[in-house]
Structure formats: structure tokens, C-alpha cells
Amino acid sequence: MSGEPVEASQRWLARGAIAAMVAAYLVLVLAEGAVGLTLLVTGLVGAGVVLAGGFWFLAKRGVQRWIGLTVAILAVVLVLVVYFRANVVFPALISMALLAAGGAAARHALQHTPMPWMPTTRTPPPAHPFIVMNPRSGGGKVVRFDLAAKARALGADVSLLEGPGYVDVAVLVRDAIDRGADLLGVAGGDGTQALVAGIAADHDIPLLVISAGTRNHFALDLGLDRDDPSTCLQALTDGEEVRVDLGYIGDRPFVNNASFGAYAEIVQSPEYRDNKNRTMLAMLPDLLSGNQGAQLTVRTGDRTLSGLQAVLISNNPYGEGRLRGMGRRARLDQGTLGVMAARVGNTAQAVGLLRRSKGGSVTLFDGGDEVVIEADAGTIPVGIDGEAVTVAAPVRCTIRPHALRVRLPRSRPGVPPPSPKIKWARLWRIAVGR
């Protein structure tokens, strides 16, 4: 941040970053003079053509789809042929290496003191923990890591979701509370985590998150070990608590996000689970053109965005304002919803979707404590923490600050600080000592 003190090492990293970027440009230009500059422009134009062809492949059908793919491939081949024929492959590789080194140095120079993580509190171990485990979740992690036996050895009452027929998890959990459970644990996907989290919040009982799902986004943002879910069980004997927010769509809780529009339409398709890639390719053209799916409007405070094809509402904002930061949330206790609103109907907007967070293609902002999603249809599909449902429009999303107690093992990987955006003006100020 601009008011923070700058260390000498940051100044030298900033100077090195600028020097590396300039050198990357000079390597090509000095290697071949004007030809090198032409080759640099050729590479940039080729990258743009590849993006445009890729969008055509996703947004069109039939011959047009394959024309887009062909154009993208030919652009790559053409750039490679031009570079090889000009005999500047070696200088080009050096230039790319300098760009990578300069980018890394710039991010280290701009790295400010990360936002402090959520405060934790030491609490005594639970007396009657109850854990729900889904043996099928995450490709069978519950069985592979022998989680049920390990949890029982630590004194937990474990219920496995197996056997024929539907199991009502909410009934199981509420029955456990009636029998005196003072901790609720889940080894399963984020959808099941959200369901149990809502019940835990209503009863002010801590939740134990066990990273036995497929993606474990919630566990990731809690700093848990996603490679070995058995380490999460250490919280039963040596743990601490953190209070986090809980998002709601109507009266249904979510720990990560609720998605509306294109992605939700695809997830709702009966063919999606059998062949995800083919289903996405079949449905994207109509969704991107607006011929299929509802047109969405987002209202929050005094801000309104309309004509949207996709909206994602998250429990606390993702990233630092760019799409590449969408995978992580620095904190889960800021009491605000995150909003991503996308409008992609042509090649220019598709390129903008990849390059920036502002403009006509995609907008990211804090949504406060309430966001309303309107649609030109009576009902709309929604993906709530990966679970496909259909809800009546308009949809009201809210957030309950500090509603959920989460029990964590004291020994855990933790959450790495986010990679900063490269802001050239600030990088220059650091480099020149201002």
C-alpha cells in the first residue's frame, strides 16, 4: 500500500524488474534491429489472434467453430515459423526469460505486509464430536485415508453416508445435537459442508472441516491440508477456533459461492455429469449469444448491472480485483459479499474477460451485506457450492458476519499471502525512491 515503508531490498527489486523488462525489449530489437521490433509486434498480434480464435471455438457451432480452432492453431504455427525463419528463436527465448524474471521481481517489490489472518482462540477439545463422512466424495478419500477409524479412535461418533437410498444429512446432524453433540464435522464436498455449517451456526456449535472432497475450496481458504485430510482430525485434540462469515441465498447457506447464469445452466444439464467437456461445448454458443438462459440483473446498494450472462456471489470477495485471483479469499470474516458479473457476447469482450476485471466483459466488486439477482424468467438455475438447484427469481443473497465457529488443527499449512498485481506507477515510485 502507498503509505507503507519501503525497504532497500524492495527498491533494488523494483529497479531490477524495470531493467529486466527493458532488456527483454532490447534483446529482440538489438538482435535484429527493425526486424526485431517487427517480430515483437508479430508475437503480440499472434497472441490476440489465438484468443479470438479460441473464443470462436467456444461461441460458435459447426464450420465456424472449427474455423476458429484452425485460425488459433495457424496463428501459433505462423509466429513460430516467422521466428525460426528470422533465426531469432534464441533471442526470443532470452526475452521471454527476462520478462518472467522481471515479473517475479516486480511482484516481490510490490509485496506489502499481508492482511493479518483471522483471529483464533484456543478452546478445549470437544466432549462429544459427531462427524458425517461420505465415502464416495473426493474419489474415496474417506476410505483411502481410513478417516472413520482414525476419528473414532479420537472419540468421535462417525456416521457414514453409505448404502442404498437417500440419507437426509440434516436429520442425522440435528439428531446428533439432540443427543449432546458439541462439535459437528464433515468429510465430504463443499455442498455438504455448507449444509452442516448452517445447522452448526444456528446452534452455535463449532464445525470441523475435513478436506475429503474433490476440490475443497473452503478447506483451502481455511489453510487446511488438502493432500492429507487425516491431519484435519488433529483439531479434535489440539485445536483452535476461528469465527467466519456464512453466505445465504434465501435461507440456504453457502460457504464458498452461488453461481447464476452460464455455469449454472451447464451444471443443470442432465448430460453434464456424464461428459462435462462435451456438454460445455454444446451449450456455450447459445449461452454466450444470449439465445439460451436468462438475462440477469444485479442490484446492490445504489449499483445496478443488467444484461449479464453470468453472476457469481461469494462469501467474502475473491482475489484482489482480477480474475487470476479468483481462486482464493484472503479472509472469511469481512462481512461482505463478493460479486463477479460477466457479459461476454463477442471476441473483444472475451479478450477483456481474460485481461482485466473492469470494462464491459467482467466486473468484480464488493457487494456489501445484500445482493439481489433479478432475471427475465420466473425461475433460474443456481449452483450453490457446486450443487445444482432451481430457485424462484428474484433471488436475495445475504451474509451473516461471524456466524460460524470453525475448529482448526493448530498445526496446518496456512494460507499463503496473495500475489500482488503489478502496478507500474507504484513500481516506478519505489524504484526511484519516492
From the coordinates shown, what is the CATH architecture of the largest domain? Sandwich
Average pLDDT over all residues: 80
- The arrangement of helices and strands along the chain is HHHHEEHHEHEHEHEEEHHEEEEHEEEEEH
Poorly predicted parts: 267-276, 279-284, 321-325, 350-360
How many independent structural domains? 3
Span of the ends, CA to CA:
13 Å
* SS-based class: alpha+beta
Number of helices: 13
CATH topology of the largest domain: Tumour Suppressor Smad4
Strand content: 15-25%
> How would the global form be characterised?
globular
- For the record, the CATH class of the largest domain is Mainly Beta
Number of E strands:
17
Output the radius of gyration. 25 Å
Helix content: 40-55%
Task: Describe it.
- The chain is of the alpha+beta class and 434 residues long.
- The chain has 3 domains: 8-113, no CATH class; 126-237, 3-Layer(aba) Sandwich (Rossmann fold), CATH 3.40.50.10330; 257-401, Tumour Suppressor Smad4 (Sandwich).
- Helix content is 41%, strand content 23%.
- It has 13 helices and 17 strands.
- The protein has helices spanning 8-32, 34-59, 62-85, 89-110, 141-144, 147-153, 169-178, 190-203, 217-221, 262-268, 276-289, 347-355, 424-432, and strands at 120-122, 129-133, 157-160, 183-187, 207-210, 239-249, 252-254, 257-261, 296-300, 303-308, 310-315, 337-342, 362-366, 370-375, 379-384, 387-392, 395-409.
- The strands form 2 sheets. Strands 1, 2, 3, 4, 5, 6, 7, 9, 10, 14 and 17 form an 11-stranded mixed β-sheet that branches. Strands 13-12-11-8-15-16 form a 6-stranded antiparallel β-sheet.
- β9 and β10 (303-308) form a beta hairpin.
- The protein is globular and about 80 Å long.
- The protein starts with 7 loop residues before the first helix and ends with a helix.
